[in-house]
Amino acid sequence: MIRPATPADAPAIAAIWNAVIRDSLATFTTLEKDPATLAAQIATGTPWWVACVNDAVQGHATYGQFRGGPGYVYSMEHSIHLSNSAKGMGMGRALMAALESHARAQGVHVMVAGVSSENPEGQAFHARLGYAECGRILQAGHKWGRWLDLVLMQKILT
């Protein structure tokens, strides 16, 4: 089941996101997410969805403005993460459908994905959803003693 996130979902969202941060190169950050901070973001109305199985959060997706300023008001960047047990079950696709539907209703023109070059599964996932690579920033990130490229992918929504 896909539903809007509530502040009560923040600990589960943080657990999923922090596993990605600690255990993979899918994100460049090494700073783990704080459940209280996530709960506050959700409470302010940040667009956020969760995928649940038997009421347990197994994934989440959110989006926000790609860059600051009025010239970018119709360009958004999203984040999506699934628990390892939820991968391959269609939850990612369902989360993205909810996210993109909401974004279209808000007049969003383009959705951007910033995907680590060390995350070929993430690149393939986005390509299957109609995202196309539109740029690559070489050595944009550094984690675990390695320089990592950032692959930018986009989908025109309107």
Model description:
The protein is of the alpha+beta class and 158 residues long. The protein has one domain: Gcn5-related N-acetyltransferase (GNAT) (Aminopeptidase, 3-Layer(aba) Sandwich). It contains 4 helices and 7 strands. Strands 1-2-3-4-5-7-6 form a 7-stranded mixed beta sheet. A hairpin with a 2-residue loop joins strand 6 and strand 7. Helix 1 crosses helix 2 (35-43). The mean pLDDT is 97.
Topology at a glance:
Elements: E1 2-4, H1 10-23, H2 35-43, E2 48-53, E3 56-65, E4 75-82, H3 91-105, E5 110-116, H4 120-128, E6 132-143, E7 146-156
Parallel strand pairs: 4-5
Antiparallel strand pairs: 1-2, 2-3, 3-4, 5-7, 6-7
Helix pairs in contact: 1-2
Q: What features would you highlight for this structure?
A:
alpha+beta, Aminopeptidase, acyltransferase, GNAT_dom, 36% strand, 158 residues
CATH homologous superfamily descriptor: Gcn5-related N-acetyltransferase (GNAT)
Order of helices and strands: EHHEEEHEHEE
CATH fold name, please? Aminopeptidase
Helix content: 25-40%
The CA-CA distance between the termini, in Å, is: 26 Å
Strand order, largest beta sheet: 1-2-3-4-5-7-6
Uncertain stretches:
none
Number of helical elements: 4
Structural class: alpha+beta
The top level CATH class name: Alpha Beta
Strand content: 35-45%
Secondary-structure arrangement, i.e. CATH architecture: 3-Layer(aba) Sandwich
Number of domains: 1
> Could you describe the largest sheet, including whether it forms a barrel?
7 strands, mixed
What is the radius of gyration computed over CA atoms, rounded to a whole number of angstroms?
Answer: 15 Å
Tell me, rounded to a whole number, the average pLDDT.
Answer: 97
GO molecular function: acyltransferase activity, transferring groups other than amino-acyl groups
Keywords: Acyltransferase, Transferase
Domain N-acetyltransferase: 1-158
Protein name: N-acetyltransferase
